[in-house]
Amino acid sequence: MDVWNQLLQGFATAGTPINLLWALLGCTIGTAIGVLPGIGPATAVAMLLPITLQVEPTGSMIFFAGIYYGAMYGGSTTSILLNTPGEAASMVTAMEGNKMAKNGRAGAALATAAIGSFVAGTIATVVVTIAAPVVAKYAVLLGPPEYFMLMVLAFATVTSVLGKSTLRGFTSLFIGLALGLIGIDQITGQARYTLGVPELMDGMEVVLIAVGLFAVAEALHVVLFEGRVVETQNKLTKVHMTKLEWKRSIPAWLRATFIGIPFGTIPAGGSEIPTFLSYATEKKFSKHKEEFGTTGAIEGVAGPEAANNAAITATLIPLLTLGIPTSNTAAILLGAFQNYGIQPGPQLLDTNATLVWALIASLYIGNVMLLVLNLPMVGLWVKLLKVPKAQLYAGILIFATVGVYGMRQSAFDLFLLYGVGLLGLVLRRFDFPAAPVVIGMILGPLAEAQLRNALSIGEGKWSILWERPMSATLLACIVAVLVLPRLVKMIRR
């Protein structure tokens, strides 16, 4: 009962005119970002992080959350009409959605994607409402050894899942951990790896690193390597579904929602795996298998889109209750929290209850806003595809540069921004994932502090990390994540 009372208070906070405006602005920008191929919510949130200096925490977190799940709604539009996924998680939507559009059913594909996103997003928000306080209650019982092992588990799983190889993932992670070491040591007070540069004494700014790795690197990559791309667009038809299409879509939405939610809640989650799983499930259960890969099956759009949105919403559970990000954008959202001096984790629901419940309430409100923005106004979003890429990416570079300079008015920060941008470009060019860099940089210092506390509790004995039942279980999970996939591969050979 207490949960629902707090949720009502959250609605009261999220329902104020200024917070509603932030939610609408976030959903609108998120949809636009999703529609425009290649930018993605991580780049958008990173680029807009400097606003945290001016806006109060509740408004800005509602704004960023709106961008995050708004991009998932918008990503289906380009997948269906252009066969160009705006987001990695929309790749599966493009497989069937584009074929439906080529056969004159673009409207039905867009409708099932938008309504499926709404259904899955709303159900997942109910799960977040109920599960977040329960997870936080048990997370309080974790001590420094368990917390350290949990962070190592997050490092192992995120680096294994994001990117094309574990080695590349770990390389990115170690770059992030190294960047996180720069600055003053909190215990000894000594400067570490600052190279005598006074600007580095306070450590590297997460905002600067995120903007450089995502926004600047993305713009440089487009300019240097993508060149001119001729895109052909399918004709947009009236956005509606027939009775039979509703009948085929509803079970797919529900199945996919319950596939997506668990993947969002675990550190190895993300939204790519559940979308592929949902696609495979729908293909198996469909009575119209002949449409898959030929004329386009509506279940092949409904399922992956719902799974995608369910997973994205559920990522808030580990982010808010454990402080563990499970996706690129969640890692940058964690950086936004830290900019306000707020550390997500088990205590967050007690120390910042107003913010957390307003954020959860804004998810319900944002889902309704996105349904309205994406169904009747889809024609407007399609016009965005006519924006020339040259002007678009020039605007992103200007916005990123001004935003970072506005933080400390430091010319050194601008050199650092473009240096990090070049690093991001190299990582992207050679298929190294950028997210583990940000995760390593944010969680590295926290993991270091937890390890030091754990060793203090264990009087210097490393065995404290596997003597307690929970930390031993987490250690077993880490070994399983690292060893099992290779073992399965060896057995198959």
Task: Walk me through the structure.
This protein has about 500 residues and is an all-alpha fold. It contains 22 helices and 2 strands. The protein has helices spanning about 1-15, 15-35, 40-50, 55-80, 90-100, 105-140, 145-160, 165-180, 205-225, 245-265, 270-285, 300-315, 315-320, 330-340, 350, 355-375, 380-385, 390-410, 410-430, 435-455, 465, 470-490, and strands spanning about 185, 190. A two-stranded antiparallel ribbon has the order 1-2. Strand 1 and strand 2 (about 190) form a beta hairpin. The protein is globular, with a radius of gyration of 22 Å. The model has no long low-confidence stretch (mean pLDDT about 85).
In spatial order, strands of the major sheet run: 1-2
Strand count, sense and barrel status of the largest sheet are:
2 strands, antiparallel
Strand content: under 5%
Question: What is the overall silhouette?
Answer: globular
How many distinct helices?
A: 22
Uncertain stretches of 5 or more adjacent residues = none
Helix content estimate: over 70%
Q: Using the CA coordinates, give the radius of gyration.
A: 22 Å
Mean pLDDT, rounded to whole units? 83
Distance between the termini: 54 Å
Number of strands: 2
Secondary-structure element order, N to C: HHHHHHHHEEHHHHHHHHHHHHHH
By oligomeric state, this entry counts as single chain
SS-derived structural category = mainly alpha
Organism: Aquincola tertiaricarbonis
Domain DUF112: 20-439
Keywords: Membrane, Transmembrane, Transmembrane helix
Transmembrane segments: 20-53, 108-135, 147-163, 170-187, 207-225, 355-378, 390-407, 414-430, 470-488
